[in-house]
Design brief:
This protein is an alpha+beta fold. The chain has helices at 21-35, 51-58, 64-82, 135-148, 251-257, 263-297, 304-324, 329-336, 340-346, 348-367, 374-388, 392-398, 403-422, 437-454; strands spanning 2-9, 12-19, 92-95, 104-111, 125-129, 151-154, 164-173, 176-189, 211-217, 231-245, 424-428. The chain folds into three domains: 2-111, Trigger factor ribosome-binding domain (Alpha-Beta Plaits), CATH 3.30.70.1050; 151-245, Roll (Chitinase A, domain 3), CATH 3.10.50; 260-454, Trigger factor, domain 2, CATH 1.10.3120.10.
Length: 455
C-alpha cells in the first residue's frame, strides 16, 4: 500500500491510499475464508463451497465491501500517522472503480486540528495577588500545626463542649428498642453535630461511669421514615472523657515538629513556605486570567466535532470524580433531574470554550515557532514522577502510548508560560477573607479532620 498526501490547506487535507490488485485480491480471499461458513450452496456442505461458486450465486462483489472496509480500517491509522496529520472528524472516503483484478485507490478528505490567526495575545493586562504572609497568617498556620500535634488525654471531671466521650447507648421509642440505635464504646466529640440535634448537648456535665438518659426528637426529614418526627430516649453510659491538649508554642515544640531548634526559626520557615505556596497559587490564577483574556480577544468558530468530543471528555471526567464518591454519572443525572442530553447541553458552552482555548493556544505556539524538546519532556516527566511518587521510568512507560498527546499538552503549557511572561502584570494586595459563621465552621471542621488524620 502506498500513501500520498495530495493537499493540505485551510485546516483540511486530502490523501490517497493506493492498493495493488494483488493486495485487494488477498484481502478478498481473507474475507471469503472468514465468512464462507455462512453460505449454504446446493451440492456442497455448509461452509465448503468454493469462492467462485459463491460469487456465481451472489455476484462477483459479494466480498468486496468487507474487504474494502478491512483495508481501510487496517491502514488508515498508519497513513495518518505517517503523514503526521491530526484529524478531528470522521474522514470522507471515495473509491476508485472496484473489480476483480483491479487496483484500489481510496481518496480521503479529512478535517485537521485548526490553526487560526490569533490577535492581541501579547501584553495582556492582568492583576496578580501579592504573596506576602503577615504575622497573623503565620500564627494561624502554627495553630493548625499545634492542633495536628494535639494529644487526647483522659480527664476526671464533668464532660464539656469539645470533649470526646466514650459511651454505650441504646435507643427506644416508647418501650420498643429500634434497630440501628445501639452501640458500645462509641467515641463522640461533643459539639461536633454528629448525632441527632440535642443529643450531644445533654451529655455536657455528665461524669465517667454515669448512666444518663438522653431525650431527643428525630427530625421530620430524618432518613429512616419509621423514626422521622418521633420522640426517643437513649439510655447512655459514659466510660471515659478525653480532652484535647495542644502543645505549648515554644522552642521545644519547634524541636518536636521540625528540624529547627527555636520557635523563631520555625516561624521564619513557615512564613517562607506559606509565601512560596501562595506565590505559585496566585501566579497560576494570573495565568488563567491571561488565557481567559486571550480567549475573549479571539472568539473563534470551534468545529462541532471538537465541541462534542470535549463534552464527552467532560462527562468522563465527572464520571470518574463521582465514582470516587461511590456514585455514577447516571445517578448524578437522576439526582439533578437531568438526562445525558440535558447534561451535554448544560456543559456545551464550557466545552466550546475549552476546545476553542486549546485551538488558540496551539495556534500561538505555531505562530511563535515554539518547540517541545526532549529535555522539556524529560523535565516534565520528572515533575509528574515527583507529584505521584513514581519512578520516572514508570511514568515514561505509562505514557508510551500517549506521548504525542503529552507533547501537545506540554506545548500548551509553554505557550501559557510565554503569554504570562509577555503580560503586563500588576501586583495587588490580597483581599482579607470575609469571616462568616458558615466558613468559620467549615474551617474548624476541616482542621479537626486534618488533626484526626494526622493522629
Amino acid at each position: 500500500m502506498k500513501t500520498t498526501l495530495v493537499s493540505k490547506e485551510n485546516n483540511e487535507a486530502k490523501l490517497t491510499m493506493d492498493f495493488t490488485a494483488e493486495e485487494f485480491e488477498e484481502e478478498v480471499n481473507k474475507v471469503y475464508r472468514k465468512n464462507r461458513g455462512q453460505f449454504q450452496i446446493n451440492g456442497f456442505r455448509k461452509g465448503k463451497a468454493p469462492r467462485s461458486i459463491i460469487e456465481r450465486h451472489y455476484g462477483e462483489g459479494i466480498f468486496f465491501e468487507d474487504a474494502i472496509n478491512n483495508m481501510f480500517g487496517d491502514h488508515y491509522p498508519g497513513a495518518i500517522e505517517e503523514l503526521e496529520l491530526e484529524v478531528i472528524d470522521r474522514p470522507q472516503v471515495d473509491f476508485s472503480e472496484i473489480g476483480k483484478g483491479k487496483p484500489v485507490t481510496m481518496t480521503i478528505d479529512v478535517k485537521l486540528f485548526p490553526v487560526v490567526e490569533v490577535k492581541d495575545y501579547k501584553g495582556v493586562e492582568v492583576e496578580q495577588l501579592k504573596s506576602d504572609a503577615s504575622d497573623e497568617d503565620v500564627e494561624k498556620e502554627l495553630e493548625k500545626l499545634q492542633k495536628r500535634n494535639a494529644r487526647m488525654v483522659v480527664v476526671d471531671r464533668p464532660a464539656k463542649d469539645g470533649d470526646t466521650v466514650l459511651l454505650d447507648y441504646a435507643g427506644f421509642v416508647g418501650d420498643e428498642q429500634f434497630a440501628g440505635g445501639t452501640a458500645e464504646r462509641q467515641e463522640l466529640k461533643l459539639g461536633s453535630g454528629t448525632f441527632i440535634p440535642g443529643f450531644e448537648e445533654q451529655l455536657i456535665g455528665a461524669v465517667t461511669g454515669e448512666d444518663k438518659d438522653v431525650n431527643v426528637t428525630f427530625p421530620e426529614e430524618y432518613g429512616e421514615k419509621s423514626l422521622a418526627g418521633k420522640d426517643a430516649v437513649f439510655h447512655c453510659k459514659l466510660h471515659e472523657i478525653k480532652e484535647e491538649q495542644v502543645p505549648e508554642l515554644d522552642d521545644e515544640f519547634a524541636k518536636d515538629v521540625s528540624e529547627f531548634d527555636t520557635l523563631e526559626e520555625l516561624k521564619a520557615k513557615t512564613k517562607e513556605d506559606l509565601e512560596k505556596a501562595r506565590e505559585e497559587q496566585y501566579r497560576n490564577m494570573a495565568k488563567d486570567a491571561v488565557v481567559n483574556q486571550v480567549w475573549e480577544n479571539n472568539h473563534i468558530e470551534v468545529p462541532a466535532s471538537m465541541v462534542e468530543d470535549e463534552i464527552t471528555q467532560m462527562a468522563q471526567e465527572l464520571d470518574q470524580q463521582l465514582r470516587y464518591q461511590g456514585l455514577s454519572l447516571e445517578q448524578y443525572c437522576q439526582f439533578t433531574g437531568k438526562d445525558m442530553a440535558g447534561f451535554r447541553e448544560d456543559v456545551r458552552e464550557d466545552a466550546e470554550k475549552r476546545a476553542g482555548t486549546r485551538i488558540v493556544l496551539r495556534s500561538i505556539g505555531e505562530a511563535e515557532n515554539l518547540e517541545v524538546s526532549d529535555d522539556d519532556v524529560n523535565e516534565e516527566m520528572k515533575l509528574v514522577a515527583e507529584q505521584y511518587g513514581m519512578d520516572q521510568d514508570k511514568v515514561q512507560e505509562a505514557l508510551a502510548d500517549s506521548m504525542d498527546y503529552f507533547r501537545k499538552d506540554l506545548m500548551v503549557k509553554k505557550v501559557i508560560d510565554m503569554l504570562y511572561d509577555e503580560a503586563s502584570v500588576t501586583m495587588v494586595d490580597a483581599p482579607e477573607p470575609e469571616v462568616t459563621e458558615e466558613n468559620k465552621d467549615a474551617s474548624e471542621t476541616a482542621e479537626d479532620a486534618a488533626a484526626e488524620e494526622e493522629k
